[in-house]
């Protein structure tokens, strides 16, 4: 939307323009926030980030999506990233930080951002800090979605899906009327390959090994807020708001 010529704006319905203007006016009074969300798979980051994004007028930066978009748009950094991927190499930290730097120029990131899935290592955290420092900015808060591995295992391994409709059930929290069978069609339910205990265990091990040092790094700067991510989504939202006030 940012690069629209004024001619294109003539075709945007007035109500959409007004809604966006009102949103932007309401956003001017909000304080700037630069946030990092850290938490294992299933800890609820995906549930909270749209709420935080709307509440504080931030842009949501998911580095995986941004990389794919840069590659598709053939930006200079996207071209470099594509070359690395085609050689089967990891995309360098500098490249990812460069892509974040580019994204921060957009009007939607004017009030700040939510970073999710990055930084995963202390080196990445340092590079992010250096880049922000050049912009005269810094990370304000790191929200740590702390949750016991056992609770995560129950959350994730209890998930069952009806493949054709996408309806999901949970053996403990939202069980089907008949075990293993979809309520509507009576067809069998399946478990996603990623939702098994073995896959979760290896993902959690990698997460703890990589991410604990990142939490320590930000703790030394006194900007980490530990959330009790095992609570209900509403309770976690109010903990987030408290942490950000």
Report on this model:
The chain starts with 5 loop residues before the first helix and ends with a helix. By secondary structure, it is of the alpha/beta class. It has helices spanning 6-9, 14-28, 45-56, 63-73, 76-86, 93-103, 122-134, 149-157, 197-219, 233-244, and strands at residues 33-38, 59-62, 112-116, 141-146, 159-161, 168-170, 224-228. The strands form 2 sheets. Strands 2-3-1-4-7 form a 5-stranded parallel sheet, sandwiched between helices. It contains 10 helices and 7 strands.
Which sequence of strands runs across the widest sheet? 2-3-1-4-7
The major pleated sheet works out as: 5 strands, parallel
Shape: globular
Order of helices and strands: HHEHEHHHEHEHEEHEH
Keywords: Kinase, Nucleotide-binding, Transferase
Family: Belongs to the adenylate kinase family.
Catalytic activity: AMP + ATP = 2 ADP
Protein name: adenylate kinase
How would you describe this structure in keywords?
245 residues, 49% helix
Q: Topology of this structure?
A:
Blueprint lengths: L5 H4 L4 H15 L4 E6 L6 H12 L2 E4 H11 L2 H11 L6 H11 L8 E5 L5 H13 L6 E6 L2 H9 L1 E3 L6 E3 L26 H23 L4 E5 L4 H12 L1
Helix pairs in contact: 3-10, 4-5, 4-6, 6-7, 8-9
